[in-house]
Structure formats: C-alpha cells, structure tokens
Amino acid sequence: MASRLLLQNLSKRHLLRSTFASRSASTLVLAEHEGGSIKAQSLSAVVAANSLSQDNPVSLLLAGSGSSLHQAAEKAATCHPSISQVLVADSEKFAYPLAEPWAKLIQLVQLKGDYSHVIATSDSFGKNILPRAAALLDVSPVTDVVDINGPRQFIRPIYAGNALCTVRYTGANPCMLTVRSTSFPVRPISVDSKSGGASISEVDLSTLDEDSVGKSRFMKLSSQDTGRPDLGSAKIVVTGGRALKSAENFKMIEKLAEKLGAAVGATRAAVDAGFVPNDLQVGQTGKIVAPELYMAFGVSGAIQHLAGMKDSKIIVAVNKDSDAPIFQVADYGLVGDLFEVIPELLEKLPEKK
Ligand SMILES: Cc1cc2nc3c(=O)[nH]c(=O)nc-3n(C[C@H](O)[C@H](O)[C@H](O)COP(=O)(O)OP(=O)(O)OC[C@H]3O[C@@H](n4cnc5c(N)ncnc54)[C@H](O)[C@@H]3O)c2cc1C
C-alpha cells in the first residue's frame, strides 16, 4: 500500500485543493458500546469530526447483536447534536470486536456512504480495526491524531511523544484517522429535545460475504471487576512503578486509589515484574491517559512512560531521587520514600463515602 502522506512544506496549491475538499465533508465514526451505552471515548471521535469542518454531518456506526446494541443506538441518537444518523449493524458476526468482520463492515458502509473521513479512537478497539479497514479501502490511515488543522492536515506525536509532526493527507477518500480521546475532550452538550435526535437505520448486511468472519475466533473475555473507574477515562489515576518491589506492596497503590476513587496505573517495569496485569500499563505501549490528577509513586519518568501521561492536568510525583526525570513534568514533587509517604497518606485521607 503506497503511503500517501507528505510531511509539511507542501505548496499553497495543495492547501487550496484541500480547503475546497472540506466543503463536502461527511464523516463516519466507528463507535464502541457497552451495557447499552456508547463509550465516552467514542464521543471524542465525534468531537474530532467537528474539528474537520463546520459543515460535516456525522454518521455513527454501531455494530453488535441483541438488545444492548439497539439501546446504545437509541442513546447515541440523542447524545450529540452533530450526529445526523446512527447506523446499526446487527449480526452475530459483530458480537465481539474482531478486526476481520468489522473491517469488512466499514468497507461496506464506506462504499455505500462515500464518506470523506472515517474516524475511530486510538484505543485497542480502533487500533485493531481501522488499519485493516484502511487496507481494504486501499488508503493509508493517519494514526494517533492529537490535533486537527483542517480537513486534511493533522498533528500527531512522533519519537514517543518527543516531537509533534504535522502531516497532510493527500490520498483518495476516505481519509481515515485514529484520534487520541484525551486530546478531544467531550463537554456536556444538550441536544434539542424537539428535534428528536438523529435518525437510526439498519445497515443492509445481505452483501456481506460469508468469509468476512475471517480466520480469527473469539475465545474468551477475562476482566477483573475491581469497582474502580476505567483507566482510560478516570479523573484521578494513581500509578506505581518498579520501586514498589512486589505485587503485595503494590496493594498500597490500590488502597490509595480506592480512597481517592481513582483508577490504578503502572509502569511497564511494574507490569514486566508481574506486580499487576498489563492492561494497567500507562505509556507509549500502554494506555494514554490525561486525568485531572495523576499521582506517580516510585516512577522514574522514562520518556516512554511520559508519552502516556504528560497531558494530565496536575501531576504529583513521589520519588526518593531528586534528579528523577518525572520531576521535570510534575506540578508537585516530593522527594521521599514511598514506603513512608503512602502509609501516611492512607492514614490521613478519609474513607471514601
Ligand atoms: C519501546 C519501549 C516502549 C516502552 N513503553 C513503555 C510504556 O508504555 N510505559 C512505561 O511505563 N514504560 C515503557 N517502557 C519502559 C521505560 O523505558 C522504563 O523502563 C520504565 O517506564 C521504567 O519504569 P519505572 O519508572 O517503574 O522503573 P525505574 O526506571 O526502575 O524507576 C524506579 C524509580 O523509583 C524510584 N524509587 C526507588 N525506590 C523508591 C522508594 N522507596 N520511594 C520512592 N521512589 C523510589 C527510583 O529513584 C526510580 O526513579 C518502554 C520501553 C521501550 C524501549
């Protein structure tokens, strides 16, 4: 697949051409739902679609099977004013987010709707499906977008977030993007109740071929019901690093998170050492978070970790090494031993009501 991305310094002629293209923008947003509601991260993709151009009707694609899918579609139709229609693909093939059938679905919907843009969030759901759909449509996706300068000009991090790169998409439609949900925060918006919200239509799946099921099979989903908020969207994240030394000690981080109503995060070193499962990893190869408050205990602040949390609103770091790089991004830093600081915090903080 030929790359159709050019780095900056393109001629003004390109700029004029892409500005013209913006007038006929229409966007397909691939959304994820759970328990009868569309996930908050997916709404960030709708916010990103709004930044492409003012006149940009958004179609939201929801797939799955059963009543929770239809419940999510009802809710999605009234959750954001820029959603003009909700497309529902109801089939057992989409009961689990396997990339093969979902990519075929996007191809089918795109061929019918001729959208100028297709957007998904840059989480494991979007990162799994969108590149495969892009390959089927023979276009190059632009991934990890953190800002949008126009319908075809995007900003994305490179070198583990050490530099920002401006890229212009010069390929054919659709321009396919994955966007970082932390860069497109969703503000509460009320939808005009008189308008009744977006229309809901079923996707005609009769032309979806049988081999769209693909070679991969869903085996099982294992998740821990910790009762804590989701790491990707929590307002407070408490993270522990290698300095915790053991899974047993890491429980201090979990207790602190419980008291604060926070999600638990970990560095890759803590994950590799087996203190916690890898779905708690924050960083370049983990989750990207930007909570109101990020508390890092015994975290050195390696660039790959910073790539996942440096956009947090307030960063608090506790480290016994005053030269630890984490202090360069911290708003509040405490040079101290976490084995003294955390017990003191646990003692002084009131129990969560
Ligand atoms: C391609 C690639 C991708 C990567 N992706 C990620 C990623 O997504 N996320 C990630 O986190 N890392 C990632 N890493 C690893 C990263 O480079 C670091 O190795 C890792 O983040 C270090 O974790 P740490 O801070 O827990 O451990 P260390 O670097 O060992 O730091 C431990 C810190 O704890 C402090 N400390 C020790 N004892 C105490 C104490 N008692 N009290 C207080 N402080 C104490 C030390 O001073 C030190 O600063 C990646 C690396 C590569 C090469």
TrEMBL record:
<dbReference type="InterPro" id="IPR014730">
    <property type="entry name" value="ETF_a/b_N"/>
</dbReference>
<feature type="binding site">
    <location>
        <begin position="298"/>
        <end position="305"/>
    </location>
    <ligand>
        <name>FAD</name>
    </ligand>
</feature>
<dbReference type="Pfam" id="PF01012">
    <property type="entry name" value="ETF"/>
</dbReference>
<keyword id="KW-0809">Transit peptide</keyword>
<dbReference type="GO" id="GO:0050660">
    <property type="term" value="F:flavin adenine dinucleotide binding"/>
</dbReference>
<dbReference type="GO" id="GO:0005759">
    <property type="term" value="C:mitochondrial matrix"/>
</dbReference>
<dbReference type="GO" id="GO:0005739">
    <property type="term" value="C:mitochondrion"/>
</dbReference>
<keyword id="KW-0249">Electron transport</keyword>
<comment type="subunit">
    <text>Heterodimer of an alpha and a beta subunit.</text>
</comment>
<dbReference type="InterPro" id="IPR014729">
    <property type="entry name" value="Rossmann-like_a/b/a_fold"/>
</dbReference>
<dbReference type="InterPro" id="IPR033947">
    <property type="entry name" value="ETF_alpha_N"/>
</dbReference>
<keyword id="KW-0274">FAD</keyword>
<feature type="domain" description="Electron transfer flavoprotein alpha/beta-subunit N-terminal">
    <location>
        <begin position="27"/>
        <end position="217"/>
    </location>
</feature>
<dbReference type="GO" id="GO:0009055">
    <property type="term" value="F:electron transfer activity"/>
</dbReference>
<comment type="function">
    <text>The electron transfer flavoprotein serves as a specific electron acceptor for several dehydrogenases, including five acyl-CoA dehydrogenases, glutaryl-CoA and sarcosine dehydrogenase. It transfers the electrons to the main mitochondrial respiratory chain via ETF-ubiquinone oxidoreductase (ETF dehydrogenase).</text>
</comment>
<keyword id="KW-0813">Transport</keyword>
<protein>
    <recommendedName>
        <fullName>Electron transfer flavoprotein subunit alpha</fullName>
    </recommendedName>
</protein>
<feature type="binding site">
    <location>
        <position position="319"/>
    </location>
    <ligand>
        <name>FAD</name>
    </ligand>
</feature>
<dbReference type="InterPro" id="IPR018206">
    <property type="entry name" value="ETF_asu_C_CS"/>
</dbReference>
<feature type="binding site">
    <location>
        <begin position="281"/>
        <end position="285"/>
    </location>
    <ligand>
        <name>FAD</name>
    </ligand>
</feature>
<dbReference type="Pfam" id="PF00766">
    <property type="entry name" value="ETF_alpha"/>
</dbReference>
<comment type="similarity">
    <text>Belongs to the ETF alpha-subunit/FixB family.</text>
</comment>
<keyword id="KW-0496">Mitochondrion</keyword>
<dbReference type="GO" id="GO:0033539">
    <property type="term" value="P:fatty acid beta-oxidation using acyl-CoA dehydrogenase"/>
</dbReference>
<dbReference type="InterPro" id="IPR014731">
    <property type="entry name" value="ETF_asu_C"/>
</dbReference>
<dbReference type="InterPro" id="IPR001308">
    <property type="entry name" value="ETF_a/FixB"/>
</dbReference>
<dbReference type="InterPro" id="IPR029035">
    <property type="entry name" value="DHS-like_NAD/FAD-binding_dom"/>
</dbReference>
<feature type="binding site">
    <location>
        <position position="242"/>
    </location>
    <ligand>
        <name>FAD</name>
    </ligand>
</feature>
<feature type="binding site">
    <location>
        <begin position="267"/>
        <end position="268"/>
    </location>
    <ligand>
        <name>FAD</name>
    </ligand>
</feature>
<keyword id="KW-0285">Flavoprotein</keyword>
